Amino acid sequence: MSDPMNKEHFIRYLTIYGSDFTRWPDHIDMQQAKELLANNADLHRLYVKEREVDRHLDCLNYHEKPGRDLKAGALAEICSISNQSTANDNYHLALGYGMSMIALLIFYLVMPALIDLSPHPHNATIDAFIDELYAMTDIQKLDPAIFFDDPSDPEQTDEIDIFLDEILPTHENQNSPDIWEMFADEPNRQT
Amino acid sequence: MKTPVTDEELLKRAGQGRDKQAFEILCDRYAVPIFAMARRMGLAAPDAEDAVQNMLVKLWQKAHLWDQSKGAGAKTWIYQISYNVIIDVHRKNRGFFGLISDGMPTENAVDNTPKDANLSQKDLVRKGLKDIPERQRSALIMFYYEGLSTQDIADIQKTTPKAIERLLARARENFKNNLQRLEVSHV
Questions:
Q1: Exposed (0-12), middle (13-18) or buried (19+): which is A147, by Cβ within 10 Å?
Q2: pLDDT (tens digit, 9 = 90+) per residue, A30-72?
Q3: Testing the interface with A: which of B40, B56, B119 to mutate, by most A Cβ within 10 A?
């Protein structure tokens, strides 16, 4: 919808948009504007002044060309920024990896100290005992004749019994003195 | 006949698809007009070239931020980036507290034409524009030379079309006065 054109409107548009009607907003009724201009001497004088302003402005109405290839310059700068960004990414990756390794190293060095903080301090006797138990589990030191032959074999059973009699002297075995009696006799022997 | 690809399509491809070919077409379309705008706004040719190159780099970096649904067309958005870059250069040139020269060259400085006595009409116009306040000058240049609407300029300067109309009217009035002053002083 076009605005009704009158002298005030015409002057307002003229001072804002200048004398070139093609620059005026689309909603303005240009036919009315031109008729108003043709029939009003005051408006015509104002119009001529504004046309002179436009004539001056038109002096610069051309596109001066830049002296260098700005597109190539921008593309080169973008590549440079991109490479720099990649380099920064690699740097941060390496930095992160290095920091992780340092953290692991520190953790490794500090861990023994943390273990030493255990409420159960080391005991050399217990350690030695554990070592002996561990040695007993060494299969090379076991007697295969005792532990791995057929237990149902009567000869084998006898051998086991003899072995047990030798290491476990009891009251049932009259041929072997009781260990407590041996201790009891000990002072008498010395005397 | 094949229709040319729109700025919107190119900007979308450059932003979302990181399509360098689309970006290069945008460079071809806008480098020269933006350079001309920077010159009209008073930058010396080397500064204007730096400003345009900077603008193109920013365009590539920020293209993904352009959102057509927010209203601004591709051209308006590109001019908004350009306007900001040019204003930044102006402010840097103006220096601390404006004590240093405002960096706005005359045609003489660039073309090596004689000063004062033989000012060309272009020199007069440049000087006339130079003395207009910054916002008025940029509004006038974007409207008159770049063909942007008052709505586009309002989007760029973050104001209303009514305010841009007032800026345009004052810009023309100031330009007219400056021309009269300059012509009298050179006659």
A1: exposed
A2: 899 999 999 999 999 999 999 999 999 998 887 788 888 888 9
A3: B56
